[in-house]
Prior knowledge:
- The structure is a single chain.
- The protein has 10 helices and 9 strands.
- With about 280 residues, it is of the alpha/beta class.
- The protein folds into 2 domains: about 1-175, 3-Layer(aba) Sandwich (Rossmann fold); about 185-280, Pantoate-beta-alanine ligase, C-terminal domain (Pantoate--beta-alanine Ligase, Chain: A,domain 2).
- Helix 6 (about 125-140) packs across helix 7 and helix 9 runs antiparallel to helix 10 (about 220-235).
- About 35% of the residues are buried.
Amino acid sequence: MDIIRDPxxxxxxxxxxxxxxxxxGLVPTMGYFHxxxxxxxxxxxxxxxxxxxxxxxxxxxxxxxxxxARYPRDPERDAALAREHGVDLLFTPDPGAMYxxxxxxxxxxxxLARGLCAATRPIHFRGVATVVGKLFLLTQxxxxxxxxxxxxxxxxxxxxxxxxNFPLEVVGRPIVxxxxxxxxxxxxxxxxxxERRAAPAxxxxxxxxxxxxxxxxxSVADLTARLRAFYAExxxxxxxxxxxxxxxxxxxxxxxxxxxxLLAVALHxxxxxxxxxxxxxx
Length: 282
Ligand code: AMP
Protein backbone atom coordinates (compact mmCIF):
# COMPACT_ATOMS: atom_id res chain seq x y z
CA MET A 1 0.00 0.00 0.00
CA ASP A 2 1.28 3.45 -0.92
CA ILE A 3 0.66 6.40 1.34
CA ILE A 4 0.49 9.64 -0.63
CA ARG A 5 0.23 13.10 0.88
CA ASP A 6 0.59 15.23 -2.24
CA PRO A 7 -2.70 15.82 -4.14
CA UNK A 8 -0.99 16.14 -7.51
CA UNK A 9 0.93 12.88 -6.99
CA UNK A 10 -2.43 11.21 -6.26
CA UNK A 11 -3.91 12.69 -9.43
CA UNK A 12 -0.96 11.56 -11.57
CA UNK A 13 -1.16 8.01 -10.24
CA UNK A 14 -4.93 7.77 -10.66
CA UNK A 15 -4.92 9.29 -14.16
CA UNK A 16 -2.39 6.63 -15.17
CA UNK A 17 -4.61 3.91 -13.77
CA UNK A 18 -7.71 5.20 -15.52
CA UNK A 19 -5.95 5.64 -18.86
CA UNK A 20 -4.76 2.03 -18.49
CA UNK A 21 -8.42 0.97 -18.31
CA UNK A 22 -8.38 0.05 -14.62
CA UNK A 23 -11.48 0.38 -12.42
CA UNK A 24 -10.62 2.77 -9.59
CA GLY A 25 -12.76 2.73 -6.42
CA LEU A 26 -12.73 5.56 -3.88
CA VAL A 27 -13.76 5.56 -0.21
CA PRO A 28 -13.55 9.06 1.33
CA THR A 29 -13.13 9.10 5.13
CA MET A 30 -12.02 11.21 8.06
CA GLY A 31 -10.18 8.23 9.58
CA TYR A 32 -10.29 6.64 13.04
CA PHE A 33 -11.51 3.56 11.26
CA HIS A 34 -14.28 1.33 12.56
CA UNK A 35 -16.18 -1.54 10.97
CA UNK A 36 -18.38 0.92 9.03
CA UNK A 37 -15.36 2.32 7.19
CA UNK A 38 -13.95 -1.18 6.73
CA UNK A 39 -17.20 -2.45 5.21
CA UNK A 40 -16.99 0.34 2.60
CA UNK A 41 -13.39 -0.65 1.84
CA UNK A 42 -14.30 -4.35 1.54
CA UNK A 43 -17.16 -3.52 -0.81
CA UNK A 44 -14.98 -1.25 -2.96
CA UNK A 45 -12.14 -3.80 -2.92
CA UNK A 46 -14.48 -6.44 -4.34
CA UNK A 47 -15.27 -4.23 -7.35
CA UNK A 48 -12.13 -2.22 -8.02
CA UNK A 49 -8.81 -2.96 -9.71
CA UNK A 50 -7.31 -0.16 -7.63
CA UNK A 51 -8.73 0.96 -4.28
CA UNK A 52 -8.07 4.49 -3.03
CA UNK A 53 -9.04 5.53 0.51
CA UNK A 54 -8.72 9.15 1.55
CA UNK A 55 -8.13 10.00 5.19
CA UNK A 56 -8.64 13.70 5.69
CA UNK A 57 -10.28 15.51 8.59
CA UNK A 58 -11.67 18.22 6.37
CA UNK A 59 -11.54 21.54 8.23
CA UNK A 60 -14.07 23.30 6.01
CA UNK A 61 -16.94 21.05 7.09
CA UNK A 62 -16.53 21.91 10.80
CA UNK A 63 -18.17 24.98 12.31
CA UNK A 64 -16.20 27.27 14.62
CA UNK A 65 -17.53 25.63 17.78
CA UNK A 66 -17.34 22.04 16.56
CA UNK A 67 -14.87 19.27 17.31
CA UNK A 68 -12.22 19.75 14.59
CA ALA A 69 -9.32 20.06 17.06
CA ARG A 70 -10.34 17.07 19.16
CA TYR A 71 -11.69 14.84 16.36
CA PRO A 72 -10.23 11.38 17.16
CA ARG A 73 -7.16 10.41 15.14
CA ASP A 74 -4.92 7.34 14.98
CA PRO A 75 -3.08 7.44 11.64
CA GLU A 76 -0.86 4.44 12.33
CA ARG A 77 -3.68 2.12 13.29
CA ASP A 78 -5.69 3.41 10.31
CA ALA A 79 -2.83 2.69 7.91
CA ALA A 80 -2.46 -0.85 9.30
CA LEU A 81 -6.21 -1.50 8.93
CA ALA A 82 -6.27 -0.06 5.41
CA ARG A 83 -3.38 -2.33 4.46
CA GLU A 84 -5.17 -5.37 5.94
CA HIS A 85 -8.27 -4.53 3.92
CA GLY A 86 -6.42 -4.43 0.62
CA VAL A 87 -6.22 -0.68 0.05
CA ASP A 88 -3.76 0.19 -2.74
CA LEU A 89 -3.39 3.87 -2.00
CA LEU A 90 -4.06 5.78 1.21
CA PHE A 91 -4.31 9.52 0.59
CA THR A 92 -3.52 11.58 3.71
CA PRO A 93 -3.05 15.21 2.68
CA ASP A 94 -2.29 18.13 4.96
CA PRO A 95 -5.06 20.73 5.10
CA GLY A 96 -2.69 23.25 3.52
CA ALA A 97 -2.22 20.99 0.51
CA MET A 98 -5.98 20.75 -0.05
CA TYR A 99 -6.81 24.41 0.57
CA UNK A 100 -4.60 27.25 -0.60
CA UNK A 101 -4.61 30.22 1.78
CA UNK A 102 -6.72 32.09 -0.80
CA UNK A 103 -8.99 29.12 -1.66
CA UNK A 104 -12.13 30.71 -3.06
CA UNK A 105 -14.18 28.08 -4.93
CA UNK A 106 -17.01 26.17 -3.29
CA UNK A 107 -19.61 23.63 -4.33
CA UNK A 108 -23.01 24.24 -2.81
CA UNK A 109 -26.21 22.21 -3.12
CA UNK A 110 -28.55 24.50 -1.20
CA UNK A 111 -31.81 22.60 -1.66
CA LEU A 112 -30.29 19.50 -0.05
CA ALA A 113 -28.43 21.46 2.61
CA ARG A 114 -31.54 22.71 4.42
CA GLY A 115 -33.02 21.09 7.50
CA LEU A 116 -31.72 18.00 9.32
CA CYS A 117 -27.98 18.42 10.00
CA ALA A 118 -27.75 21.66 7.99
CA ALA A 119 -30.04 23.46 10.44
CA THR A 120 -27.42 23.44 13.20
CA ARG A 121 -24.36 23.01 10.94
CA PRO A 122 -24.84 25.78 8.36
CA ILE A 123 -21.49 25.50 6.54
CA HIS A 124 -21.08 21.73 6.93
CA PHE A 125 -22.41 20.56 3.58
CA ARG A 126 -20.60 23.22 1.59
CA GLY A 127 -17.38 21.83 3.05
CA VAL A 128 -18.44 18.23 2.35
CA ALA A 129 -19.48 18.89 -1.26
CA THR A 130 -16.32 20.85 -1.97
CA VAL A 131 -13.90 18.31 -0.51
CA VAL A 132 -15.69 15.37 -2.11
CA GLY A 133 -15.70 17.22 -5.45
CA LYS A 134 -11.96 17.80 -5.09
CA LEU A 135 -11.38 14.13 -4.18
CA PHE A 136 -13.36 13.07 -7.27
CA LEU A 137 -11.22 15.31 -9.51
CA LEU A 138 -8.00 14.10 -7.92
CA THR A 139 -8.88 10.39 -7.97
CA GLN A 140 -11.04 10.15 -11.11
CA UNK A 141 -12.76 7.09 -9.61
CA UNK A 142 -15.10 4.79 -11.52
CA UNK A 143 -17.21 4.63 -8.37
CA UNK A 144 -17.16 5.98 -4.83
CA UNK A 145 -18.78 4.34 -1.77
CA UNK A 146 -20.51 6.20 1.07
CA UNK A 147 -22.41 5.05 4.16
CA UNK A 148 -26.16 5.49 4.54
CA UNK A 149 -25.58 6.62 8.12
CA UNK A 150 -24.84 10.06 6.68
CA UNK A 151 -27.97 9.94 4.53
CA UNK A 152 -28.21 13.67 3.85
CA UNK A 153 -24.56 13.71 2.78
CA UNK A 154 -25.20 10.79 0.42
CA UNK A 155 -28.27 12.45 -1.13
CA UNK A 156 -26.32 15.67 -1.61
CA UNK A 157 -23.36 13.91 -3.23
CA UNK A 158 -25.67 12.02 -5.58
CA UNK A 159 -27.23 15.32 -6.64
CA UNK A 160 -23.85 17.02 -7.07
CA UNK A 161 -22.60 14.15 -9.25
CA UNK A 162 -25.72 14.28 -11.39
CA UNK A 163 -25.83 18.06 -11.70
CA UNK A 164 -22.13 18.53 -12.46
CA ASN A 165 -21.74 15.38 -14.61
CA PHE A 166 -18.97 13.84 -12.56
CA PRO A 167 -18.18 10.65 -14.53
CA LEU A 168 -18.60 8.15 -11.71
CA GLU A 169 -21.13 6.03 -9.86
CA VAL A 170 -22.09 6.90 -6.28
CA VAL A 171 -22.81 3.81 -4.18
CA GLY A 172 -24.69 3.97 -0.86
CA ARG A 173 -23.94 1.18 1.60
CA PRO A 174 -25.89 0.00 4.68
CA ILE A 175 -25.21 1.26 8.20
CA VAL A 176 -22.91 -1.01 10.24
CA UNK A 177 -23.97 -1.29 13.88
CA UNK A 178 -22.74 -2.62 17.20
CA UNK A 179 -24.50 -5.79 18.38
CA UNK A 180 -26.77 -3.64 20.54
CA UNK A 181 -27.84 -1.53 17.54
CA UNK A 182 -25.75 1.60 18.05
CA UNK A 183 -24.54 2.86 14.65
CA UNK A 184 -20.75 2.82 14.53
CA UNK A 185 -19.21 6.27 14.51
CA UNK A 186 -15.74 7.65 15.16
CA UNK A 187 -17.48 10.00 17.59
CA UNK A 188 -18.77 7.16 19.79
CA UNK A 189 -15.47 7.46 21.73
CA UNK A 190 -16.82 10.73 23.15
CA UNK A 191 -19.58 8.87 25.05
CA UNK A 192 -19.36 8.46 28.81
CA UNK A 193 -20.01 4.87 30.03
CA UNK A 194 -23.52 5.89 31.10
CA GLU A 195 -24.26 7.48 27.73
CA ARG A 196 -22.87 4.45 25.93
CA ARG A 197 -25.25 2.19 27.89
CA ALA A 198 -28.22 4.37 26.92
CA ALA A 199 -27.19 4.97 23.28
CA PRO A 200 -28.76 1.81 21.76
CA ALA A 201 -32.12 3.48 22.50
CA UNK A 202 -31.47 5.71 19.46
CA UNK A 203 -31.95 2.72 17.17
CA UNK A 204 -34.73 1.26 19.34
CA UNK A 205 -36.68 4.51 18.92
CA UNK A 206 -36.27 4.35 15.13
CA UNK A 207 -37.45 0.74 15.04
CA UNK A 208 -40.42 1.57 17.26
CA UNK A 209 -41.32 4.50 14.98
CA UNK A 210 -41.13 2.20 11.98
CA UNK A 211 -43.63 -0.10 13.70
CA UNK A 212 -45.92 2.80 14.57
CA UNK A 213 -45.87 3.84 10.89
CA UNK A 214 -46.47 0.24 9.79
CA UNK A 215 -49.37 0.05 12.24
CA UNK A 216 -51.09 3.02 10.58
CA UNK A 217 -49.59 6.12 12.20
CA UNK A 218 -49.24 8.39 9.18
CA SER A 219 -48.97 11.87 10.71
CA VAL A 220 -45.34 12.94 10.96
CA ALA A 221 -46.17 15.40 13.75
CA ASP A 222 -47.71 12.61 15.84
CA LEU A 223 -44.93 10.15 15.04
CA THR A 224 -42.12 12.55 15.94
CA ALA A 225 -43.93 13.63 19.12
CA ARG A 226 -44.08 9.99 20.20
CA LEU A 227 -40.45 9.52 19.32
CA ARG A 228 -39.44 12.62 21.29
CA ALA A 229 -41.28 11.25 24.33
CA PHE A 230 -39.54 7.88 23.84
CA TYR A 231 -36.08 9.49 23.81
CA ALA A 232 -36.90 11.77 26.76
CA GLU A 233 -37.79 8.68 28.79
CA UNK A 234 -35.07 6.29 27.56
CA UNK A 235 -32.22 8.79 27.25
CA UNK A 236 -32.81 11.56 29.77
CA UNK A 237 -29.15 12.60 29.56
CA UNK A 238 -29.53 13.42 25.84
CA UNK A 239 -30.97 16.43 24.05
CA UNK A 240 -32.75 15.82 20.78
CA UNK A 241 -31.38 18.04 18.00
CA UNK A 242 -33.98 16.90 15.47
CA UNK A 243 -36.31 14.06 14.56
CA UNK A 244 -37.57 14.66 11.03
CA UNK A 245 -39.23 12.73 8.24
CA UNK A 246 -38.12 13.69 4.74
CA UNK A 247 -38.30 12.50 1.18
CA UNK A 248 -35.23 10.24 0.80
CA UNK A 249 -34.17 11.80 -2.51
CA UNK A 250 -34.94 15.49 -2.12
CA UNK A 251 -34.60 15.74 1.70
CA UNK A 252 -37.78 17.85 1.63
CA UNK A 253 -39.84 17.49 4.83
CA UNK A 254 -43.04 15.46 4.52
CA UNK A 255 -46.10 15.74 6.75
CA UNK A 256 -47.76 12.41 5.92
CA UNK A 257 -45.95 9.10 5.63
CA UNK A 258 -46.72 7.54 2.27
CA UNK A 259 -44.49 5.24 0.21
CA UNK A 260 -40.84 5.68 1.15
CA UNK A 261 -39.81 8.24 3.72
CA LEU A 262 -36.64 8.74 5.70
CA LEU A 263 -36.84 9.21 9.45
CA ALA A 264 -33.60 10.83 10.62
CA VAL A 265 -32.54 11.84 14.13
CA ALA A 266 -29.63 13.63 15.79
CA LEU A 267 -29.09 13.67 19.54
CA HIS A 268 -26.61 15.59 21.65
CA UNK A 269 -24.96 13.84 24.55
CA UNK A 270 -22.46 15.62 26.79
CA UNK A 271 -19.64 15.60 24.22
CA UNK A 272 -21.00 13.66 21.26
CA UNK A 273 -23.64 14.44 18.68
CA UNK A 274 -24.93 11.17 17.24
CA UNK A 275 -27.02 10.65 14.12
CA UNK A 276 -29.01 7.70 12.83
CA UNK A 277 -31.86 7.05 10.40
CA UNK A 278 -34.28 4.49 9.12
CA UNK A 279 -36.17 4.16 5.85
CA UNK A 280 -39.92 3.91 6.49
CA UNK A 281 -41.78 2.00 3.77
CA UNK A 282 -45.55 1.88 4.12
P1 AMP B 1 -16.43 9.55 8.30
O1 AMP B 1 -15.02 9.09 8.46
O2 AMP B 1 -17.23 9.54 9.56
O3 AMP B 1 -16.54 10.84 7.52
O4 AMP B 1 -17.14 8.46 7.39
C1 AMP B 1 -16.57 8.05 6.17
C2 AMP B 1 -17.59 7.22 5.42
O5 AMP B 1 -17.95 6.10 6.23
C3 AMP B 1 -18.87 7.98 5.11
O6 AMP B 1 -19.34 7.59 3.82
C4 AMP B 1 -19.80 7.49 6.19
O7 AMP B 1 -21.17 7.57 5.82
C5 AMP B 1 -19.35 6.06 6.34
N1 AMP B 1 -19.76 5.53 7.64
C6 AMP B 1 -19.58 6.10 8.85
N2 AMP B 1 -20.14 5.34 9.82
C7 AMP B 1 -20.70 4.28 9.19
C8 AMP B 1 -21.43 3.13 9.63
N3 AMP B 1 -21.71 2.91 10.92
N4 AMP B 1 -21.85 2.25 8.69
C9 AMP B 1 -21.58 2.45 7.38
N5 AMP B 1 -20.89 3.49 6.90
C10 AMP B 1 -20.46 4.40 7.80
